[in-house]
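Two folds, back to back.
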Amino acid sequence: AFIAAVAYVDPGNFATNMAGGAQFGYLLLWVVLTANLMAMLIQSMSAKLGIATGMNLPEVCRERFPRAVSFLLWLQAEAIAMATDLAEFIGAAIGINLLTGLPLFPAALVTGAATFGILGLQAYGFRRLEAVIAALVGVIVVAFGLQVLLAKPSPSGIGHGLFVPGFEGKESVLLAVGILGATVMPHVIYLHSALTQKRVVGATPEVRKRIFRFELIDVVIAMTLAGLINMSMLITASAVFHSRGLD
């Protein structure tokens, strides 16, 4: 679940949450909360499919849908994955450039090497890859947690934004749609079913149900952390930019 959770803290989430907080303050916090609850449901269903059937979601689609439908779903997932990865790759290169002063092209080469290095950990077993990904998510959680503390947001504003749904004009509705779109992405739903299908294979329905109960805990923890990161982005933007009239 932590590998899937990385997709929920990508540049698309950064952009929509920061823009939402800067333009509308705490207004759209409830959208982030709702999107995260939706992500928990969808990712748990994807994991359940892999555990229960031993097949991943693309394999089930290929088996159950006409060939033309499966082909279109494949093209959709590839296009969205490439668009997302491009933003993440460029974002990482810009981050290295800002932190170290390294020019963008060498920073992009470092990003590529780091990406293949992390993926190469799969050759030594899935636990090492999961541990590195979880550690990286942990760094993001700590960083944004500190930002929220430094921003000194309004507790009453946070509470109102979380639990009182509302919009302010069509621009806020468009941003809400952007937050949803950046949160629930098809390729990550496909991925989660593949991560669970052969990780621990249950011989009986009772064992598979037990495996799924543990996976459900995993999903709730990972998606909660991703949700807190997204909320902290919006809260920080609200406290730092919106409160000063900077959108």
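---
second:
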Amino acid sequence: MDPGQIQIFHCIHRCVRRAFLCGTDPYSGTCYEHRRQWIRERLEFLASTFAIDCLTYTIMSNHLHHVLRSRPDIVEGWSDDEVARRWLRLFPKRRSADESPVEPTSEEINSIVGDAEELGKLRRRLSDLSWWARCIAENIARLSNQEDNVTGHFWEGRYTSQQLLDEAAVLAC
């Protein structure tokens, strides 16, 4: 992936150890259908934070497909303050008692804005598919493992991706 170019990729996250992403496990009879909502809410949150378009997605019983378009052109237009605020939405420094993120302070924002090297790195990350994939996978894995009362890997590897080079490939996907 060229981080400076607008590109479209088909990404796949696959579960391990017969874990269920959604649907009903025929062996245990446990229904995991509610996880679709977790994933949808997480995708909406990431789409509102990253400079990445989620063109489409589908959630299968043991894997997630999504078609993503990187938008480095958009993130370059954001102010330094906007980059810092978006990053702190993803990785808040502080949380409230119910674990929801607390609005960042001006000091937290200024600590990012005042460091040009760090700011540049975060600006690139906000249009990077690998960071998007990390933010979806980690969140869903934590929730699923907690619900299943297990530890360890939930996803098989990181994720796989295939660049879609033309409109026909995008439509086929």
